[in-house]
Amino acid sequence: MAQGTETERSASNLSLRQLEYLVTVVHEGRLTRAAERLHVTEPTVSQQLRTLERTVGTALLERRPEGVRPTEAGAAFLPYARTTLRCAQEATSAARSAARGRRRALRIGTVHAALPAALLPGVRQWTLAHPAAPVCVRPHGSRSQLQDSVAAGAVDLGVGPRPVGWDGRVLALGTEELVIVCPEDDELCGRTAHLEDLSGRRWIGHQGHGPGEAFAEAFRAAGFHPRIAVEVPQAEAAVALARQGVGLTLVPADALPPDLRKVAAHPAPRLLRELTVYTAAHPRDEALACATALAEEAGAGNAD
Q1: d(CA 240, CA 232)
Q2: For residue 7, what is the DSSP state?
């Protein structure tokens, strides 16, 4: 039997219940608490997880005295499990909404806690032109998580850095400038700073935007690898720690409130990143129309 066929067959044996058990156990950290939350017995949870691991072909969890945690394979599996569960919920919600004659919301995923400024005019124009089509914005912790959600159909559009190895439609929205956030009393505040002059400083990394992931090339060009003091999941946490003196961090200027933009340092040369809107390989007609409208509106704004 071909390997691809074997993989497809094993994947077809996965159940949503097993995925729910896995996600819940990882969230709770202990089988007992997970069983209570799921309203089943602990042996039932254990049995379903063992079946899941046999189907996948490797251990997904490891049990330690302090609790249960995912293995390396489990950590790789978890984002897809969560996306699958979200898709199942979305499918149910869409069917029920259609049965009641309601339109499903157009879901836009971003890697910001809020919509980038470049996207706001387009969303405004789209909602005014389509008052019966609701829009829902869903933030994601990183570019890879956003790509997974778009590919799996958990969101209809992705707004963020250009996706890597993408089969769907990708349209340019513009660029976002990256700035250095530093402590309030730092001499860098409000100044221009050359990255090569900051080789001895501590840095705060964060998913999607941190120097450890997105800007490694810029630091290599400056001739050093940033010394990461701490890594956090979101840009907001990195900004808070930077303002408290833990280290420096890089974030899009639009991710900062106006009062902080004035005191942030500006890298030299400027660090700019392309911002795009993209769809899955086979998007809904409405999603493709919205992506096109957002890109056109962003282009008109840039021209002005």
Answers
A1: 11
A2: H
Partners of 138 in the beta sheet? 109
Q: Cα separation of 290 and 1, whole Å?
A: 43
pLDDT beyond 80 at 8: no
Sign of the CA dihedral running 178, 183, 188, 189: positive
Burial of 79 by CB count in 10 Å (0-12 exposed, 13-18 middle, 19+ buried)? middle
Q: What is the CA radius of gyration of the chain?
A: 22
Which has the closest alpha carbon to 113: 252, 210, 278? 252
Block residue for tokens 């949870």: 45
Q: How far apart are CA 283 and CA 108, in angstroms?
A: 13
Residue 50, both tokens: 């063992």
212-227 burial string, b = 16+ CB within 10 Å, else e? Answer: bebbeebbeebeeebe
Report the distance separating Cα 139 and Cα 151, nearest Å. 16
Strands 192-194, 135-139: parallel, antiparallel or unpaired by DSSP?
A: unpaired
For residue 228, the cross-strand partners are: 203
Instruction: Tell me which residue of 179, 155, 161 sits closest to 248, measured CA to CA.
Output: 179
Q: pLDDT tens digits for 25-82?
A: 998 899 999 999 999 999 999 999 999 999 999 999 998 888 888 898 888 888 888 8
Read off the DSSP letter of residue 254.
G
